[in-house]
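Message: A physicist's question: would you kindly supply an amino acid chain plus fold tokens?
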Amino acid sequence: MIPRPLAQRRTAAIVVTLAALTAGGLGACAASSDTATTTEQSAASAGSLHMIANEGHRLAFHVIPGHRPAIVLDAGGGLDSSQWHAIAPALAQRTGSEVITYDRAGEGASDEVPGPWKAANAASDLRAGLTALGARGAVLVSHSLAGEVATELVRSDPDRVAGAVLVDASLPEFYTDAETARIVAANAHQIAELRGKPQTRQTRQLLAQAADYGPAHRAYHRMSWPDIVPATVIVSSQTPFDTPQDARLWKAAQAQFAGAASNRTLIHADPSSHDIPEDRPDVVMKAVEDMVARVRADR
């Protein structure tokens, strides 16, 4: 499979497969200085900073005060809370809700953690932050790789999340054994090249996310989302892939997930790339507003 040219993608590392995580991730490293320069400005516009400890490392959470349910925005792979710099304050104004953004370990202002990236560890970090902030029954908004974090969180602590908006998210249905094996084999050379490059914070994060990819995603494929947690699924028109086979499977996985329970809704963000929060913030915000209204009505 051939990932899109870097010039066509603003935030290449957001894609959740090895194909784009490696070739795309190199572009993200090149653009990391731009991301870094916007992080402080974005965080400042997003409210107060809370450094919260979990398992020996600290994570940066940014909070715009407001009413409950809290809206929790989780960025795509290789990105930090600055992905939401425009959406977070707009949602706070339009819903009156508390809005929380955060940096996963190794991203933004959060501490780097050595070893392979695991969704369960990321979910533990998010849970620790929400516990410290007193946010329970939140509306979780998860883009791309963050879909794996969301799945781990709602499976282990379903009362933590009252509803979710999954934005072109990495969902278990996509990772059939055949597809996972194909991705790993097709990108082994790119992973080796990335290991040979100078190691920076960004390259270490990319390699951490690529480590144990096959076994982790074969196990992920067997997971399921609890039926008690409603979800809105937003799928992009382009998907993370240029190859038709992968794009079809990605869209089919989104539709399969959405159709598995009566409290799930599928929305097509047309036109859009995988980076829906950048291309179609209107679609994301409308879906979040609707989910917040649904959660409030149920209380």
In short: Residues 1-17, 19-44 have pLDDT under 50 and may be disordered. The chain has twelve helices and eight strands. The longest strand covers residues 57-64.
